[in-house]
Amino acid sequence: NRLVLATRNQGKVAEIAAMLEGVGVEVVTAAELGLPEVEETGTTFEENAGLKAESASKASGLAVLADDSGLSADALSGAPGVYSADWAGEERDYEAAMARLQREVEAAGGDRGAAFRSLLILQWPDGRRVLSRGEVRGRLVFPPRGEGGFGYDPCFVPEGESRTFGEMSAEEKRRFSHRARALDALRAELGL
Ligand code: ITT
Known about the structure:
192 residues; nucleotide binding; XTP diphosphatase activity; dITP/XTP pyrophosphatase; ribonucleoside triphosphate phosphatase activity; ITP diphosphatase activity
């Protein structure tokens, strides 16, 4: 009962593996299996999650779970969105990405509204797919705060909170997160 996490992002791996504890699947990662990296040429979360799911499925012959996600700023009409990882560049420099976000949001009038979104695709070896989405609204804070989580977590405060995702424990982030909501929706869909 193995499930491949079709991601190279260790932050996603940690969160998804923790959320799947007790579900009765053995989680293996794309890196552990030496699966090829995928070029994310899509322009939507759905397309990119589909590319990752298809590639890992073909290469492993196992059931796979892919996540495509990102942070969308209201002031920037949804950017960086699908391009959230691109903003961090090859070096995965999220301090630079958050500094750019602050500059662009301020230049665009300063609206701090934002949302994290996650799109999950579970794909079986026969090609069958189930797709689910999760979202959390909140606001951007600068300078970023906290060492927890990954990516843009230090500059995002979910609605109803005063701390950033970066200032929360993994368990606390999970109470709000787009990824937890998408995975809950997926489990509901599957009756798990
Ligand atoms: P894989 O494609 O291998 O899964 P990736 O990091 O490139 O890894 P994406 O293409 O989906 O993943 O890019 C999503 C980016 O959005 C990710 O790199 C983070 O910067 C950001 N992001 C998504 N979920 C996040 C979260 O829970 N906390 C902080 N940042 C997040």
